[in-house]
Design brief:
The protein is mainly α. Helices cover 68% and strands 0% of the residues. The longest helix has 29 residues. The N and C termini lie far apart (69 Å).
C-alpha cells in the first residue's frame, strides 16, 4: 500500500503539459483584472478616494479571484466567461470616463528645479507582482484535483504553466537588475566596474545571496525531515529553486566582471546568445539531454562524493546554464525596451519596442520548434524553453503596458504594490502557508468547490500578510530624508 507522500508525488509526476496559447490565456487574468481595477479605481475616486480597504476588496474580487479560477478546472467555461465580462466592463468604464484625458502608462516626478526624475513604471510593478501571485496560486493549487494536470510541471518536454515559475522569476529579476537600469545611461558605471577589484564587485552579490542560501537549506532540511512530497526530476534530489537563484546571481556578476576586464565596456551583448547556443549544442549533439533525462542518481564510483552529488542534482546544476543566459537576455530586453533613454524616451516607444521583441521571440520559438524540431524542455532548460519563457513574459509585460496606457497612468493596486516591495519575504511566507495547508489537509480528498475556497482564502491571506509587512516596515523604518534638489 502506498503512503500519502508517494500518492502526492505520483499526483505531480509524469505530465506532458498544455499549449503556449492556453498558458497565456490563464495568465491574461492578471492584465485583464488590472485593467478593470484601474477603471473602477478611477470611476469611484470621487466617492471613495484612495480608501485602502475599498481598494483591497475590489482588488481581491476582480484580480485575485479570477487568477485563482483560471488556474483550475473552472477555466472553461467560467474562467473565460469571467475574463470576457471583466474586459467588457472595463472597456465600457473606459469609454464612459472623461474624454480627452492624456493617456500615459507611467508617471514622471520633477524636482523644484524642473529636472525630471526617472519615470515610475506601474506596469512593470504590476507585471512583477503578477509573476509572484500566479506562482502563489500554482504552488498550492497543484496539490488539489481542481488544478488541471496539464498545468503541472512537465516530466521531460512540453508547455506546463508551472514550468514557467522559476524562469519567470529569473526574467523578472533581469528586467529590474542594476545592469539593465543603469549601465545604459551611466557613462561612468562601466569604467568604475573595470577599475573595481574582484572582491568589491562580488561582495554585494554574496551578501544578497545569504538569505537565498539559508532558505534553500531550510527547504532542503524541512522537505527531508517532514517527509514532504518531492518531484525529483524538477531540480534533483537536494537542489531547489533558491539554490538556482543564488547560482545565477553570483555567476552573472562574475561573468560581467570578467567580460569587462577582458573585452571592455559594451562588448557583452553576444555572450548570452553564445552561451545558449553552446548549451543547446551540448544537449542535442553531445548527449547531455539524454543524460539529464535517463542518467542514474549515482556514479559508477560510489565513493566519489562530488560526482554523486552532481548526478543526484544534475537537472538543477546544469539548468543554471540556461537560466543564466535567460537572465542576461532579459537584462538586454529591458535595457532596449524600458530603461535606455536612447531607445525608449516615451511610453509609446516602450510599447512599440516591447511589441517588436515579443514578435521576434515568438518567431524564434516557432523556428526552434517547427523548423529545428527542438521541443521545449524545462527539465534541461534548453534553448527552446529559454525563448518560450522570454516570449511569454514579454507578452505579459506588454499586456500590462497596454492596461495601464488605457487607464491614464493609474497607480498599482495595494496588494500588488506590497508584494512587489517585499517579494522575498512574501514568497517565503507563501511557501510556509502552502506547507501548512499540505500538512494539515489531505488535498487529494478535497472536493473542487472546497479546494477553490481554500485557494482563495490562502491568496487573501498572502495579500493580507504583504499589506501588514508593508505597513509595519513603513511604520518602523524612518523616511528617507529629502535631498536639497527634491
Amino acid at each position: 500500500m502506498t503512503t500519502l507522500k508517494e500518492q502526492k508525488e505520483a499526483f505531480v509526476t509524469g505530465h506532458s503539459g498544455s499549449t503556449p496559447g492556453e498558458v497565456l490565456l490563464v495568465c491574461f487574468s492578471a492584465p485583464v483584472g488590472i485593467f478593470l481595477f484601474n477603471e473602477i479605481q478611477r470611476s469611484t475616486k470621487v466617492l471613495f478616494g484612495t480608501n485602502r480597504p475599498f481598494l483591497v476588496a475590489v482588488e481581491s474580487l476582480v484580480l485575485l479571484l479570477p487568477m485563482a479560477i483560471c488556474q483550475t478546472s473552472l477555466l472553461y467555461p467560467y474562467g473565460v466567461a469571467l475574463l470576457g465580462i471583466e474586459f467588457i466592463l472595463a472597456f465600457c468604464l473606459n469609454f464612459l470616463s472623461s474624454a480627452g484625458t492624456k493617456r500615459n502608462c507611467e508617471t514622471n516626478d520633477s524636482n523644484k528645479n524642473g529636472k525630471a526624475k526617472k519615470p515610475k513604471l506601474p506596469f512593470l510593478t504590476a507585471y512583477r507582482s503578477t509573476v509572484s501571485y500566479l506562482t502563489f496560486v500554482a504552488i498550492l493549487a497543484v496539490d488539489f484535483y481542481v488544478f488541471p494536470r496539464r498545468f503541472a510541471k512537465t516530466e521531460t518536454t512540453g508547455y506546463g504553466l508551472m514550468d514557467l515559475g522559476a524562469g519567470s522569476f529569473i526574467v523578472s529579476g533581469g528586467f529590474v537588475s542594476w545592469y539593465a537600469r543603469r549601465s545604459a545611461t551611466s557613462t561612468s558605471t562601466s569604467a568604475q566596474t573595470v577599475t573595481a577589484s574582484y572582491w568589491e564587485t562580488i561582495k554585494p552579490t554574496l551578501i544578497r545571496s545569504i538569505p537565498l542560501i539559508v532558505m534553500g537549506m531550510i527547504r532542503l532540511l524541512t522537505t527531508k525531515g517532514l517527509e514532504y512530497q518531492e518531484h525529483v526530476s524538477e531540480y534533483g534530489v537536494h537542489w531547489n529553486f533558491f539554490f538556482t537563484l543564488t547560482v545565477v546571481g553570483i555567476a552573472s556578476t562574475m561573468a560581467r566582471f570578467d567580460s569587462l576586464q577582458i573585452l571592455g565596456p559594451g562588448n557583452f551583448k553576444a555572450y548570452p546568445w553564445l552561451l545558449l547556443v553552446f548549451h543547446q549544442a551540448a544537449l542535442s549533439k553531445y548527449g547531455m539531454q539524454t543524460y539529464i533525462e535517463e542518467g542514474g542518481r549515482q556514479c559508477a564510483e560510489k565513493t566519489s562524493v562530488v560526482c554523486n552529488v552532481f548526478a543526484a542534482n544534475r537537472e538543477g546544476i546544469l539548468g543554471c546554464v540556461g537560466y543564466l543566459s535567460m537572465f542576461f537576455i532579459s537584462e538586454d530586453i529591458a535595457q532596449y525596451c524600458i530603461w535606455d533613454e536612447r531607445f525608449a524616451k516615451t511610453p509609446s516607444q516602450r510599447g512599440k519596442r516591447l511589441s517588436i521583441c515579443c514578435s521576434i521571440l515568438w518567431a524564434a520559438l516557432w523556428v526552434l520548434v517547427s523548423v529545428l524540431e527542438i521541443p521545449v524542455s524545462r527539465r534541461s532548460t534548453n534553448a527552446t524553453f529559454v525563448i518560450w519563457t522570454l516570449a511569454h513574459n514579454v507578452t505579459i509585460l506588454l499586456m500590462m503596458w497596454i492596461a495601464f496606457s488605457l487607464t491614464n497612468g493609474s497607480s498599482v493596486s495595494p496588494i500588488f504594490d506590497a508584494v512587489n516591495r517585499h517579494g522575498l519575504i512574501v514568497f517565503i511566507l507563501a511557501n510556509l502557508m502552502t506547507g501548512l495547508v499540505n500538512i494539515t489537509i489531505n488535498t487529494l480528498e478535497v472536493a473542487d468547490g472546497q479546494a477553490l475556497g481554500v485557494i482563495f482564502v490562502y491568496l487573501f491571506a498572502v495579500g493580507s500578510v504583504a499589506l501588514t509587512v508593508d505597513w509595519t516596515l513603513r511604520s518602523l523604518l524612518p523616511a528617507r530624508p529629502k535631498t536639497k534638489d527634491e
